[in-house]
Each structure stands twice: as C-alpha cells, then as structure tokens.
Design a protein that fits this description.
It is elongated, with a radius of gyration of 30 Å. The protein is mainly alpha-helical and about 200 residues long. Helix 1 runs antiparallel to helix 3, helix 1 packs parallel to helix 4 and helix 2 packs parallel to helix 3. About 50% of the residues lie in helices and about 0% in strands.
C-alpha cells in the first residue's frame, strides 16, 4: 500500500449534518410588490381620459369653434388649446416612450388624435404591474407616477380653459354638468307640484 492512498477503513466517518434552511431571497419581484396608494389604477385613468376629458374638451371646443378669428379672445384660447394638446401628448409619452408621426395639423382634429394616441398608449400598459413599486435592485422609478402626474397636468389645463370659454358662453357650466346625474325614474308633472 502506498502512503498517498487511504482505504475506507482509515477514513473517519463524519455524521451527516442537518440540511440548512434556504436563505431568503434578497431580490424583489415587481409583481409581488405592493401597490402605491397615491396612484390610481390604469383602468381609472383610461376611463377618466376617455370619458370626462374627451367630453369636457368637446364642450369647451364648441364655443371656441364658433368664435370669429378676428376676435381678440381667439388667440389666447388657441394658445391654451395648443398647451392642452401638448400636455395630452406628454401623457402619451409618459405611458409609452415612443412617438408617432402623422398628427393632423388642424387644432380640433389634433386634440382628438392626441387623446386617441394617449388612450392607446395607456391601454398598452400592464394593468397588473401598473402602480406597483419597482424592485429596489433595479434603481428605477415606477412609470405610474409620471403617468398620473401627466394626467393631473391635463386636468389642470382643462381647468385653465374653462374660465376663458365661460367668457364666450355663460351657459358652459350647465352643459359641463349635464349627464353627470341620471334619475332612474324621470321627473314628471306630479313630482313638480307641491305636496301641501
């Protein structure tokens, strides 16, 4: 027998140790992170843009569209509508980091196109992951916060347009509020007469 080889009889037997518990993972998964409470769901943002913002823009555009071009209020309103259109474009860019060409040149059609483009960008986001905090190890910010901030800017521009259009059309508030409340049973003549 050589000195370099040991036989099984000469090797001491070591008792098997208990298996170690699995170490916890230090990496976070995006889908398992909690939702941020200050950011609404993507469905709500899409519904707000498609319903309220589109309807409000249509009601604000009506009096502006009938305003003569030589009216001094026309240029100020046009500037505000262009600013609104740019804010809607920023909302689409925040949702999806790409630009598309082919926007119409006419302002009324451009605003409608911008809303449609922003809606398609918002619908391309994953509703399950939108609004969740990014994993810490990525060192990135969530896309949900800039998208919600861009929507708030769009709503702020609509609020700035309202008093300008109200100068042209004093009945604007009534038209903006119509359709918000719907009665299950419509009001008839019996309900209009006093009880006593």
């Amino acid at each position: 027998m050589t000195d370099t080889l040991a036989t099984e009889a000469e090797v001491p037997q070591v008792a098997e140790a208990a298996p170690r518990p699995a170490a916890p993972k230090l990496l976070e998964a995006w889908g398992q992170n909690e939702r941020m409470r200050h950011v609404p769901a993507i469905g709500w943002i899409v519904e707000k843009l498609e319903g309220d913002v589109r309807r409000c823009v249509g009601k604000l555009w009506g009096p502006y569209g009938t305003l003569p071009v030589d009216d001094p209020r026309h240029t100020r309103l046009e500037g505000e509508f262009r600013t609104l259109c740019r804010s809607i474009d920023r909302l689409a860019e925040a949702a999806r980091h790409s630009r598309t060409n082919g926007a119409p040149a006419e302002l009324g059609a451009r605003i409608g196109w911008a809303i449609d483009h922003a809606l398609s960008s918002l619908r391309s986001l994953d509703a399950n992951l939108f609004g969740r905090r990014y994993p810490v190890q990525t060192h990135e910010r969530s896309k949900a916060e800039p998208v919600y901030a861009a929507l708030l800017v769009v709503l702020q521009h609509l609020g700035r347009l309202r008093p300008l259009v109200l100068e042209i059309d004093p009945d604007l508030d009534e038209r903006l509020l119509e359709g918000l409340v719907r009665l299950e049973t419509p009001v008839d003549d019996r309900m209009r007469q006093p009880i006593a």
